[in-house]
Design a protein that fits this description.
Helix content: 25-40%
Oligomer: single chain
CATH class of the largest domain: Alpha Beta
Strand content: 15-25%
Shape: globular
Bound molecules: iron/sulfur cluster
Number of helices: 12
Number of strands: 17
Distance between the termini: 31 Å
CATH architecture of the largest domain: Alpha-Beta Barrel
Order of helices and strands: EEEEEEEHEHHHEEEHEHEHHEHHEHEHE
CATH superfamily of the largest domain: Aldolase class I
Number of domains: 2
CATH topology of the largest domain: TIM Barrel
Strand order of the largest sheet: 1-2-3-4-5-6-7-8
Length: 422
Amino acid sequence: MERYQLEDMEVIFDCAGRDDWGKFSFPVWYGIPVKVNWRGYRVDFNLRGGLKRLTGTMSVWPDPQSSLKRTEGNDFIYYGTSGYEFSYDLIKNYYMPFNGIYESDLFTENPLEGRHVGQALDAFDGLVEAAGRLAASALCDRPRDFLKKVAARNRVTLAEDAKTLHRIIGTNLPVLPPDTIDVDYEVIPLIVTEGCKSNCRFCLFKSAGDFRVRSRQSIAAQIRAVKDFYGADLVNYNSVVLGQNDALAAGGELLTGTADMAYDLLNLSASYHRGRPRLYIFGGVDSFLAADDSLFEGLERLPYSTSINVGLESPDQETLDRLGKPLRAEKVRESFRKMQEVNRCRRNIEVSCNFVLGGDLPSRNVEAIKTMLTEEKTTKGKGVVYLSPLLGASQRREVLREFRAIKMASPLPVFIYLAQRL
Ligand code: SF4
């Protein structure tokens, strides 16, 4: 580590955080940020000088277990533990990520509205100003150059930065695959398809328009522009998400071609994070059932660990009809069987699935999910089942009761998905 003290600001370079995306019940940081300590606040910056994470000493930040993270989409996520002692069992993470965008009835309060959060963001504005002043008087190149970058990224320009990323990929990602919680949602987005073939009535996440696949040329241009955007901070990533909601329908050649090109151009083999890079893909039931051996063999040969998340929603026909999902329950069950088969046979691919809970769905929904999961006898420790409470229509107590009933009956790991976006 290299430390510099400039008046009341401490700047620390080369802060090697965890490189394994491990889950811990105490605060850790991932990757290599630049840490700045100023007036009680502890602020992590990415290597481009953008705000990444914020916490502080007890004088300014009341809960040392909690932190505020900024995403590259310029959303803030509040990570806290208070009141969620069983959060790992619930969501596969010791910290509950609250983004304030998709209000989940699981949260009893809005931590982003806490007074200390507002004060911390005001303090960040002050830090950015101070960085500009201190950069002008810094004697050494390294802190001077870095503080200039910090000074150029106030809250307004950070919002512009996020717009630039969304312009490059041509959209935002209204929802990330649930498995991205395994890398703390730190994924590089690349869009290969848009729109959705199903247009389910209940869905709040579908991207606009008819389903379409982007051309190879536009994807290649996207990867090159994304590389420039992340710049020096690329080393902090080893995960790519291929959007949007049914990217699997792009077909094996486009998926593997995109993943290979991203691996090379984004230099993922040089990532700070150890282990195989991760590739995240959403798939619809039809595209998953249509995916043949050649598609899975192509993904299997990639230098990634690939996670495919399939939106099954419910094995109960009445529930599917209530959701406005144009799908037969038999296909859901067939997809679930195929999910187990892929998980058994493919070493570098893991398929997870989603079901919905809550709202005024028929009570048979939970029973049908339990029955289908219980019938699965041959898990190999792969294949997570995520339960998504219908947003704005689910009672906390009811969702928790249904979640526990399914979790206790299931031989597969079961978690709630709290939707995140980018
Ligand atoms: S298939 Fe999935 S993404 Fe598409 S509309 Fe239905 S629920 Fe939404």
